[in-house]
Amino acid sequence: MIRHTVFFRLKHPHGSIAEADFLARAMKLGPAIPDVRNFKCVRQVSNNSEFDWGLLMDLADQAAYDRYDAHPVHRMFVAERWQREVEAFVEIDYLVGDEPGEA
């Protein structure tokens, strides 16, 4: 399984209507894309990170990840919202179940 994580900072002020609208739209990604499992939007609470928000999801394998990445709903969100409203981000994808010490 692949755990896809994206941590980001928006151009919008904290608590703004624009921030709430972006996050509400982002939350629609999980249910709209069949291969996405365990979709979550999380808020950063530590002062040790430059990012304020995170999107987390699980995908069964590389083929599921590729379908997610190419899905029209994902592509449209990136083009119409992400590229315009996200100030900075980091994307990290992990293999889950292949950690050292697991059988």
CATH class, named: Alpha Beta
Order of helices and strands: EHHEEHHE
List the total number of helices. Answer: 4
Q: What is the averaged pLDDT score? A: 94
What gap, in angstroms, lies between the N and C termini? 15 Å
CATH architecture: 2-Layer Sandwich
The CATH topology = Alpha-Beta Plaits
The percentage helix is 25-40%
How many DSSP E strands? 4
Largest sheet, order of strands side by side? 2-3-1-4
Shape: globular
Please give the domain count: 1
Provide an overview of this structure.
With 103 residues, the protein is of the alpha+beta class. The protein has one domain (2-95): Alpha-Beta Plaits (2-Layer Sandwich), CATH 3.30.70. 37% of the residues lie in helices and 32% in strands. The chain has four helices and four strands. The longest helix is centred in the C-terminal third of the chain and has 14 residues, at 72-85. The mean pLDDT is 94.
Describe the structure concisely for a colleague.
The protein has 103 residues and is an alpha+beta fold. It has helices at 17-27, 29-32, 62-70, 72-85, and strands spanning 2-10, 37-43, 53-59, 86-95. The chain has a four-stranded antiparallel beta sheet.
How is this fold's topology laid out?
Layout: E1 2-10, H1 17-27, H2 29-32, E2 37-43, E3 53-59, H3 62-70, H4 72-85, E4 86-95
Antiparallel strand pairs: 1-3, 1-4, 2-3
